[in-house]
Structure formats: C-alpha cells, structure tokens
Design goal:
Number of helices: 0
Radius of gyration: 14 Å
Helix content: under 10%
Strand content: over 45%
Largest sheet: 7 strands, mixed
Number of strands: 11
Length: 120
C-alpha cells in the first residue's frame, strides 16, 4: 500500500494558475504510474493526467496544453501544474498511484483529495 499526501489547490480566477503536489510513501517500489484524477459534483471521477515510470504521459483532452504533470522520482512526488484555468476545471482533485498486473492498472493508493475552485 502507498500513502499519498496532497498539497496545493484552492481558489483561482479564470485564466489563473494553481499547482498541486503529492508525496508518496510506503511501498514505493510497487508504483508503475502516478496520476491525478478529479471529480466534480454529480459527475464521475475522471483521469486528468498520468505519468508512467518510463516518462510517458496521458492527458484528458480538455486539459491538454494547459496542465502539465511531472514526477520527481528521488523525492517520490508528483506535481500537476494547472494553467489557463477554466470554471469547468472546478473539482476535487485526487492523487493516485497504480501498478500494472497482467496489463491491467490496479490502484495502490489514493490521496484524500484537494478542492480546486475556479471562479471570478
């Protein structure tokens, strides 16, 4: 099991920026990928950005070009830099760590969630 502690988030104006960070501890060697998900009220949780151990990334189409995920393997952290924020980015953002088992992604840890609100 991996413990994930998030920081960052808060309130931003449309067009503004926020930075989310997540620190991992525990069974670090089991991690094959780290990601950020988000869940808006009344909606399903969705993948925002993922970075695998080999450095490959995946982004939700609507955030591509505005959000950037990065990892510091020495510090066991993952960061999400969010620029050009829009009101529709408002959600609770969750850090995730996962491993791959027989080609399937299995979560090994979730953060507690941090609120991001974009509003004027």
């Amino acid at each position: 099991q991996v413990d994930l502690v998030e920081s960052g988030g808060g309130l931003a104006l449309p067009g503004g920026s926020l930075r989310l960070s997540c620190a991992a501890s525990g069974s670090i060697s089991s991690i094959n990928a780290m990601a950020w998900y988000r869940q808006a009220p009344g909606k399903q949780r969705e993948l925002v950005a993922r970075m695998k151990n080999d450095g490959t990334t995946d982004y939700l189409h609507s955030v591509r070009g505005r959000f950037t995920i990065s990892r510091d393997n020495a510090e066991n952290t993952v960061t999400l830099q969010m620029n050009s924020l829009k009101p529709e980015d408002t959600a609770v953002y969750f850090c995730n760590a996962a491993k791959y088992v027989a080609g399937f992604e299995v979560a090994v840890g979730w953060g507690q969630g941090t609120q991001v609100t974009v509003s004027s």
